[in-house]
Amino acid sequence: MRVAIADDEETIREFMVSLLSDGGHKCSVFRDGRDLMNAMARDTFDLVIIDWMMPTASGLEILRWAREALSPCPPIIMLTSRSDKADVAEALNAGADDYIIKPESKNVILARVEAVMRRTTHQPEKQSRVEEFGRYSFDRMTNNVLLDGEEIVLTAREFALARMFFLNPNRAFSRAYILETLWNSVPDLPTRTLDMHISRIRSKLRLGPENGYRLQTIFGHGYRLEVFDEEE
Amino acid sequence: MKFRRLWLEWLLIGLVASLAICWGERAGLFERAERLMYDAAAPLHAAPPDDGIVIVVIDNESLERIGRWPWPRDIHAAMLARLREAGARAILYDVLFIEPSPQDAALAQAMRDGPPVYLPVLFDIPGPDGAPYAVQRPQPALTAAAAGLGIVNLELDSDGRARRVELKARDGAHWLPHLTELGYRAMRGAPSPAYAHASADHPSVYVPFHPTGSFRTISFAHLLSGETPPGLLRGKTVIVGASATGLRDHYPVPGSAELMPGAEVQANLLNSLLANRFIMPMGRDWVASWSLIPLWLLMIAFWRLSPTQALILTLAMAGALIAGTVAALAWTGCWASPVGALIGLAIVYPLWSWRRLSAVAHFIDTQIDTLLAQSALSPALLEGHGGDRIARGTDRLDQIIALMRKSAAERQEMLQFLSHDMRGPQAAIIALLDSENERETPEQHRISRTRIRRYAETTLMLADNFVQLARLESQPAERAPVDLSDAMAQAIDMVWPQATAEGIQIDRSAAQGAECWILGEDDALVRAFTNLLVNAVQASPKGGVIRCAVAREGEFALASVSDDGPGLPPARKADPFARFGYSRAASGVRGSGLGLAFVAAAARQCGGEALYAETESGGAHFTLRLPIWEED
């Protein structure tokens, strides 16, 4: 995969290059926004990772420009130390595929990169009745989930929501996307409905690091199911 | 800009007041007040009653004793004889003898026999049948016997009061002098200075009247019957005139509440002629002009004076104006009415005070708005107390200043925080890097790397806490329904790896599935719980258990985190959620207090509170008590 990395901090650039090269990716690095935009305009990348604060063009400007001008637009991940909830939401709502707050561990960064790549390179869906995810197994016939063999009863919508997360680990889902896919944009749906479903699957499935998963709220945007690596 | 506006207002007030004075003065609007002051002050200029003047009055008693008016003229002849015997020097006989009488010859003889007798003529303006004036003289025989004829005309002002007397009136080619002027000439042998000064255009003089009854007065009947002491009239100028009620020879004069008999009016005039003391009122134009002087002096003084000083100066100026003009009248006879000037002050002071106050009120309001805008404080936070609008404004300003002081103090703390807590770990990292050398074993190398990592993480956490707290306190909340148990679960997920690494358990059984909805900001709540959990992890001993719970209690949701640690250090117990509550003395304690300050701020944002207690084993037990949100 060809990955473009833009960051004005040399240490971060080197860190990212070594991280992604180990994963077998080919990296091009840029130290400012204008250079990256020129490169994106004439070259094709499978993934672009950009910092927010950069000379000549900010990450957000690049993001908006790319979504507007490039077709097809490569997936874009914001990697920045801006940690404010409003910033995260702004970048994701402007079309970033993910948002990683510096500093973040190697495992998490790789998992997020993979999640974004997996999404763009379509994988054939499994057709088996029971899908296994770590200690959880999803039975598509009964809409039941087994955790270590213990049966957990879910409603159809809870099952669909949980399965969506488990099929796309580490991927950021916007609330709008979830509502559209699972509720088919039911009008006048109380905003609390989704929160309640999230809350229920979290407690019913006992989603937590102790069971290998962490269901995170991306404040102001949506949710993400993180696969929790015990080695970390 | 502000100064320019105030200056324009100042000029406008001054000009408006000046115009009002000039117009009012010229239109005679202040006349009543001016006359009131004049009447009160005029007697002060009167010369002491001259010893050489005696009044003989035809009073009520005389009419009772002698009979009805008019008397037969031989009674007047008898009186003239009596006056001659008493040694009078000159006689102003203020009785009209216009109609003929059988006793005229006898009276004429009596007049010729004694001291000079002066008689009044009736000078009517206008005269009958379209004539400009008419002069009615005494009977020819009497005119021939008299030493002189004089007018006795008084000029009445529009309010009916006599303040002026005409010293001369033109009769054809020559002038008729006033009766008292003739008396003056008899006493001094020459025309009076006032007469000489009186011109055709200004024949009148303003007389400073004594109060009624100030001159020596004898009853006609008493004198005629010889009841008066001898020698009383020797060498005196005698004015004979009526005072009896029925004869209607009475006039209101300034300075006297009761009417003054005509004879006494003549006595006052003669007295003034003798002393040459008259009042010279200033013309209206002049009064209007000089009235502007104190006004503009006050206006100029307004720039420099405090409000109290301005009030004192205004009152002092008013007092000085009254005293000064009265004194000038008493001593020099020159009368410049202070009424216009007083009215000027009375216009200017409240107007200027109003503009000033309004400028201050406006300033306070705009300052409050500006400060509120700058400081991002909520206007609802400040409730003005105190009676009126300005008091409320100053009260609010006080509160803003207090808040700004507080934030200045916080800034000071922040600087300390930045210089100590933030720089500290960085300095430690540099020190660790500098101490590295080749002889280091891989094990030592690993240890110092771990330490560097921990220092960096500490700094990052501080920076994060600091920014988050500042954001929470400065930005308006966007509150939405949040499930407390869900927020707690997310926080536990965040802290779980750290806890597990330290061998600490997190017991979340009491926090799951409670579905307690409150109104707040989800990220702030998750962060608040995370802060509590991180503190708990740091405080817990190895193998300790952190207990999390979410429960309902009436209208409130309670979310708590407790640990097996030693609880808060004593120094922090007084105010556990104080920002920078980190006591420098209690060194060795990790943290800056920012985490707990954030917890308290997040609880406040949800309309609740953060509480601290200790468990039975002495561990810390933090609770967020937040009002429950119910869907309508």
Automatic annotation (TrEMBL), chain A:
SMART domains: REC, Trans_reg_C. Residues 2-117 form the Response regulatory domain. PROSITE patterns: OMPR_PHOB, RESPONSE_REGULATORY. It comes from Sphingobium fluviale. This is Response regulator transcription factor. The keyword Nucleotide-binding does not apply. Residues 128-227 form the OmpR/PhoB-type domain. GO terms for molecular function: phosphorelay response regulator activity; transcription cis-regulatory region binding. GO terms for biological process: regulation of DNA-templated transcription. The modification 4-aspartylphosphate is found at D51. Keywords: DNA-binding, Phosphoprotein, Two-component regulatory system. SUPFAM superfamilies: CheY-like (SSF52172). The keyword Kinase does not apply.
From TrEMBL, chain B:
It is found in: Cell membrane. The chain crosses the membrane at residues 286-303, 310-329. Gene3D superfamilies: 1.10.287.130, Histidine kinase-like ATPase, C-terminal domain. Coiled coil: none annotated. It catalyses: ATP + protein L-histidine = ADP + protein N-phospho-L-histidine. It holds the Pfam family HATPase_c. This is histidine kinase. Keywords: ATP-binding, Cell membrane, Kinase, Membrane, Nucleotide-binding, Phosphoprotein, Transferase, Transmembrane, Transmembrane helix. Residues 417-630 form the Histidine kinase domain. GO terms for molecular function: ATP binding; phosphorelay sensor kinase activity. It is a multi-pass membrane protein.
